[in-house]
Amino acid sequence: SYINETIETSQGMMIVPFPAFLRLTWTLPGITITLPWILVCTLSLAVIAGLSAVPGILNNPAEWDSEHLLDDAALVGQALAVLASSSLPVAVVIHKLRRWRWLNPTFEPRIFPWRRAFEERLQETHPVPKACERGAGRALQVKELIDFWSHFRPFIKDRSMTYVVSNIIYPLTEPWQLSYAEVVGPKPTMWFVSHYWGSPFRAFVQSLKKHAQGVCRSAEVNGA
């Protein structure tokens, strides 16, 4: 089966296995066309060779006899044979080399700079995180959760807490070996909230916002 839509992975990267990467796939309305890329290159080269000969034929038709055309066809055939015989080993080598990270030193997931910017904000508000005892003294404020969601919204989208924890929370807290509440600055608990990790994180934040608006009617709850 083929994936015919945009892929947004939660972690890591997608590597197309051999021999799937040797095929080119076009998705058209109602039909999917798949061709070996060697055939595509060969046909492309043949078309280019044929088009390049058209001006010469039109300008000097007398010089283009059948023997001349046969000689040119033989040269094109040899070029196509070389291309076809070398395409497979070259493709395999390129496929293997692309898996080496050092060949892609500029590659960086788009979320990395956003995460660094958020880390800098946390450092400004709470520069020296410290551990505290588990329990009622280690909580988050709703506005901190809304601020978190607002910053990472382009990446979280409709994803669940599983994505949020593995891709954002763990990287933010790993240098300190502390919980996220300790990194942000723990607050005393007023409401204990339990939630399902499989639901969209967006829905969780919006639920807390509505709860806060209902409980604190005189307060303004922004974001989300």
What's the SSE blueprint?
Elements: E1 23-28, E2 31-36, H1 37-59, H2 66-97, H3 111-125, H4 142-156, H5 161-173, H6 180-184, H7 201-215
Antiparallel strand pairs: 1-2
Helix pairs in contact: 1-2, 3-4, 4-7
How many whole angstroms does the radius of gyration measure?
A: 30 Å
Overall helicity = 40-55%
The low-pLDDT segments are none
Largest β sheet strand count, sense and barrel closure: 2 strands, antiparallel
Percent in strands = 5-15%
Question: What is the end-to-end distance?
Answer: 38 Å
What gross morphology would you assign?
elongated
Count, helices: 7
Strand segment tally: 2
Structural class of the secondary structure composition? mainly alpha
Q: What is the H/E string?
A: EEHHHHHHH
Strand order of the largest sheet: 1-2
Mean pLDDT: 75
